[in-house]
Hints:
The protein is mainly α. The chain is built from 20 helices and two strands. It has helices at about 35-40, 45-80, 85-135, 140-165, 175-195, 200-205, 210-215, 225-230, 235-245, 250-265, 280-295, 300-315, 320-345, 345-375, 380-400, 405-410, 415-445, 445-470, 475-485, 485-505; strands at about 5, 10-15. It has a two-stranded antiparallel ribbon. α13 (about 320-345) crosses α15.
Amino acid sequence: MTIKIDLEQGELSEQADISQPFLPAEEKPESKKSFSERRTSNGGSTATVFLSTFIVVLGSLEFGYCVGFSSPVQSAMIKDLDLTTSQFSTFGSLLTIGAMIGAILSGRTADFLGRKGALRVSSACYVIGWLMIALLKDAWLLDIGRLLTGYGAGLTSYTVPVYIAEITPKNLRGGLTTTNQLSITIGILIAYLLGMLVEWRLLAIIGIIPCILLVSGLFFIPESPRWLAKVGHDKEFEEALQALRGKDCDVSDEAAEIREFVEELGNLPRAKILDLFRMKYMHSVVVGVGLMLFQQFGGINAVMFYASEIFKDAGFSSSNIASVAVAALQVPMTAIGALLMDKSGRRPLLMVSAGGMSLGCSLVGLSFYIQSHESDTSIVVTILALGGLLGYIATFSLGMGGIPWIIMSEIFPINMKGIAGSLVTLVCWFGSWVITVTFNFLLAWSTAGSFFIFAGVSASAVLFVAYLLPETKGLTLEEIQSSFESFFTRRTLNANTNDFLQEER
Length: 505
């Protein structure tokens, strides 16, 4: 029988299962339980948490609206402004370039101005960008407007999930943070639908509305208590935490836990980019960056790019109908993922999602392979391609679309969150840009082979999650971050202990 030494407890035990939280919950007396633990039996107020989440995800809706804007307006903009296809492609791609710039600065901006301050900056960029697109005629000025909206998207994509994760109790964190991705899909759908109904300049003006609502709503919600504690605003910290937990709730234990964690981090030197590669933070960086790479290199942008062609082959003559159908599928599947997040956990949803994406891409690749080697197989090809496409999009929306952002918002301690979050967000947008740029070259090489590569990447994501991602459901942010910091050290010590015991035998 194999015996392992529990290096934390100082006694013999079996090795912990990675699918379970590293820091198991201990039974506490009622007076010592945190707000989120007492809430189930004592009621507790979550109205402010829900209101705050609803307001900040207006930024995510705006982000999605920006992403969806270029697809329905392409023909009209090219005609009205006498643009070449290359000029419009440049216009569309500048959203990603701007987002990469915004991602680089997002962490520092959110740390310096606060989460609400960063959202105000992103809203200002959105508004200026939309006004330039709606009112100006020169192509280069429209490009600047598109770049500004991209910069706003880069700030939003980091700030919104971080803010939600920092204000929500642990039993609601997963589901509420998923509303970030849900709002993005709703924004894309709104842009597609309105793009079929209104002129493109009016569509740009409409894009300002969520920004106005967001900036107005920020006056009625508290700042992130963890950020306030980090910058030393003790009075505001207590007021914000009390507002989020309810005026009749005793938040002293939770406040003490946050203060203690922040004080420990405050004794550390100012965080630098190289600190991310210390053993203490290596596990968090590997997981955060890895999930974003799998999200993008799993081929989501390529599949969305090819969706209209697949729908045309299935008998849908309008590419707009295809775009709306794809966006409409994403919304309910993302909502289902949000409902399951705090019940099933992050790991199972991610593995099911990545597995479904792999299967979907395999079916699409197989359809193109059959098409290139056989004749008179249109029905078979159509069924495989359409089924693979819909299955891929549905399973992507269920987990891989939103959960990497949740994990990013949970695993980095407050002193590293700005730098680490910027890195992870930049990797996401850079991966999106790489796939967009290289996809046509991949198609020229082999259409079927391209989708088989994406299928292999998604299959690898299942193994990545199974081996490296512990379950974060039901843990506070401080517990999650402590467990991630000890992951590699724990495994190294366990391995050394096992080797020692084997040598002794």
